[in-house]
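Sequence in, structure out.
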Amino acid sequence: MVSDGIERLGFLIHDVQRHMRKRFDARASAFGLSAAQWRLMVRAAKEEGITQARLAELLEIEPISVSRLVDRMEEGGWVERRADPSDRRVRTVYPTPRAREAYASVKSMAGDVYEEALAGLSRDQRRTLIVCLDKIVENLGDGETSSCDMAKKTESVTA
């Protein structure tokens, strides 16, 4: 049987994500935040006023864990909670100026990690990779909006 390597797809995607996360974590450690805290902060910076319930969904952790994580980040001056104006029971999360500043540094650092990861790939190969990964997300996402779609919307608004 001739294999085109497709049976390795899941392992490769996982390995790429793991290597990129390790490289990013090593560079971002100067800020003193855990990987979970970084992920929460990035989500709060990209979606100011995000609810804790939505954070739990996006981060794939239990709501109580998000609450504790936000507690620690609020104590550290990274985020602040506010009551939702339309529903007092709902708490929304906003980045502080300190978090926005760190996020700007991290975006630059992430770009460096991406360049390192994509070294040796042509511009066309890079585009093809992104198009293919977007399609995989679309195929498996059950109608969810992907992080890439949200990033594209953010880029078009800020451009």
